[in-house]
Amino acid sequence: MVADNEYDSALAGWLGADGGDGFGLRRPNATDPDVIARVREWVRERFKLSADAPIMVSEITCNLPGCPPLETVVAFWENDTRHHFKLFKPVAEVTSDNLPFGWMKESLIVPEGFGCECC
To answer: How far apart are CA 26 and CA 46, in angstroms?
Structure first.
């Protein structure tokens, strides 16, 4: 990435090849299985999902203007119904307080025929 302005320069530093954030700090390993498992368990508890309900937790990059560089995408299935939501932060920074409220579960259902590139 060629930095043409301060935003691009900061973004290039944050996404630098050394894994740093541009301020001398290293991002936690987002693919760390313990981090993914922790978020997955919070989702299971929050939405009262069975032990065998599939839950997908992924960290994706976004290059669209105004989008955070890293987002956490969560999808889960219950009775063949898919639910999903995004959190606008890296998965390693997600806390249980960031998850939607349990009573919002029905609003997270993905409508039949809905196309979604993220999950």
So the answer is: 30
